[in-house]
Amino acid sequence: MHMQQLSHRARVLKALNHQEPDKEVGVGIYSEPQRMERHRAFLDKGPADRPLVGCNIGFFMHEAFPNFVKRLPPGPVTPDMILAEPFLEDCERLYQAYRQLDDDYPFIAAAFIYVPWTEAIMGCPIATSGTTMWAEPCVNDWGTWRWKKPSLDSNPWAQKLLELMQALVEHSKGRYPVAPTLMRGPADMLSAMRGASRFAMDFLDCPDAMRRAAALCSELWIDLGKAQLRLVPRSEQGYFAGAHGLRFWAPDKSIWLQEDAMALLSPRLFREFILPLDDAISQEFPYVGFHLHGSALWAVGDLVKVPGLDVIELNMEAARCDVEATFKGWRKIQENKPLVIWGPYDLEGWINRVWREFPAQGLSIQTTAADLVGALEVKAAFASMP
Amino acid sequence: MGTVEELREAIINGDRTAAKNSVEQALKEGSDASKLLSGVLIPAMTEVGDRFERQEFFVPEMLVAARAMQEALAVLKPRLQAADVKPAGKLVLATVKGDLHDIGKNLVAIMMEGAGLEVVDLGVDAAPDSVVAAVKEHKPDLVGLSALLTTTMPMMKEVIEALKQAGIRDSVKVIVGGAPLTEEYAKSIGADLYAADAASAARVAVKALGN
Q1: pLDDT tens-digit readout, B96-140
Q2: Overall number of domains in chain A
Q3: Looking at beta carbons, which residues of chain B come within 8 Å of A266?
Q4: Does residue B181 sit at the A interface (CB-CB below 8 Å)?
């Protein structure tokens, strides 16, 4: 059955029913063999004359998606407020901007990544200030919480996410890749559900409840990831994961995982409660990238040993804190896995040092600019690197 | 193990029930409330902070230790007030406007209280005006400002400017901290003190107060 023969709603329903709704769709960038060869070499940690480089256009949600954001008043956010039309307008503008930029990465679209989707599906109220969105706690007491995994068929946030993703697939018409949205993992979901302080203490106060809740979050994560990947049109030329920021290509369907709240745990608690779940998640998907912050450098040694994590990204944090420790973390990752570095643009600083000190094999440097003009400047600067 | 040692261990291990029981027992045995505060509770939290800096303790251990200390302190408070025991200093503490992250600020509050300071916690998303009002009302020795986001860091400077405009900047020392901050940034916005983490915040504050 070809893409045009199915209605928007029918495709979402098929994805929920564990079926891939559409046949193959070609995406422009995949037809450029030289460019794709660089991505393949990155994943294989094969020979490369330079690292992959990319700059995303707009970092904050109001920079990247102004049409969408201006229709979203500050305060509580409900699924019906997530409007496809202004979002697609922003995606069209971004797609055109990325075409002009024409660096190593294409525009990759995903359902509005600033919504904390997994937390919302688990029941957290969502709110926005106009520049950011966040999830508020929804579990006051594990003893009285409804221990049931939300159903993607009936959860309004899950429905909205899948509808938005399908709208992107249709809007793309094969012009740009569509990928799963940013999905925070079990630790982040639990942290949002309980609030950061209670989350951290719960692992000591009620470890059994946390183990059970984390497993439930993990199951939801896997369901949601798979439902989104079923909506991604099949492509013989492979798939990009990530959206408008962290990105990697793989020959099969791929997804990013992150656990920012692990920074609030100890290595022992992370290893006991969260790492086994991340390991299990990674085995459910063909290719998985893991996004990591400098606040959890202690986890690098554990993460590089997880066989199902194919790519690891470690940020250069905006404050440039723990620079030497971050470099050490990057080295450790690159010894074991393809390494993505994302950080604020600083050519004379960390970027120059990485360029000089790190082998190009299995290395991707990604940064950000507020707009296309800035991104073109970044591209020109990268091109002038020796 | 004596009662006082049990109290110390209970706080360090984050055992709130044992902390409450031990402090009650110590009082029954005739211990002085102010000596328990200065000689047991505060050193126990200092030890917790030291272990945090040595990466023997992490955020969960620090939080449960603080909770145990709060339980013990609640038992002592009526006696401390009756004896007119003064805190080592007073701090007005806030996460700045636009920033809703509270765990860093909460950890600072924990360590400041653990160091014997009275903390007036303005919560998160605190506007410059509310900080100025709190300084006028509570007359603190210190104002602590926390931010987790690079986008909200500049609000710290706005708070300092608001204190200047209100004519009360010189009445307080401003201490700033948060993941994206550096000492250079703290200096550049006119803060008096910078702390890289919660444990060092308490140490820096105590030193600044000359205690």
Answers
A1: 987 777 788 888 988 898 888 999 999 888 999 999 999 999 999
A2: 1
A3: 57-61
A4: yes
